[in-house]
Write a structure and sequence with these properties.
This protein is 35% helix and 19% strand.
Length: 176
């Protein structure tokens, strides 16, 4: 079989794409990320990956990526748990907030975190505004109850699984 010029170009483009993907780096950006034996949240864990772990993309499987860790382990991670840039630390490392610290070292930057705290009524300016506007005490107490709620990693994972969210979302059209 004689290869035409367009076939040669197509093969060259595919080899270039494969080579580029082999050098593609990603970083774990979510607490509780596991390296899996297959592109499925219910497959066996190869290893638990810490936030900030650098991985190399070996293969893309739709919503899952086959990756290799720095120590040579290979497996699959859900694409929503990795980032194209290294994660940055959140505003503080205390254990406060709705998720009880499970979002520490996430991609949230300081400005966004400060905005969220203001919206929730945590900043002194918003507290003064609520007082000046005569916000009913029952609203303040309700907000305090919500902000005191802690959700651990186990509860968060159960919520995602029950709600079929993220890596637990049902796959359509044969996509992994």
């Amino acid at each position: 079989m004689r290869m035409t010029r367009s076939m040669v170009v197509a093969v060259a483009l595919m080899l270039t794409a494969v080579a580029a993907m082999a050098d593609e780096k990603r970083w774990v950006s979510s607490e509780g990320t596991s390296l899996k034996t297959e592109a499925s949240p219910i497959s066996e864990n190869v290893a638990d990956l810490l936030v900030g772990t650098e991985v190399t993309v070996v293969e893309s499987g739709g919503r899952w990526l086959k990756v290799r860790t720095g120590d040579g382990r290979e497996g699959w991670v859900y694409v929503g748990r990795v980032s194209e840039t290294p994660p940055v630390a959140e505003v503080s490392a205390d254990d406060s907030g709705l998720f009880g610290g499970t979002l520490q070292k996430s991609q949230i930057n300081t400005a966004k975190a400060d905005s969220a705290r203001s919206i929730r009524g945590l900043s002194p300016e918003v507290t003064k505004y609520a007082k000046d506007r005569g916000t009913p005490e029952v609203y303040k107490k309700s907000l305090d109850v919500i902000l005191a709620r802690k959700v651990g990693a186990k509860e968060l994972k159960a919520f995602l699984k029950d709600g079929k969210i993220g890596e637990f979302a049902q796959v359509q059209g044969g996509e992994r």
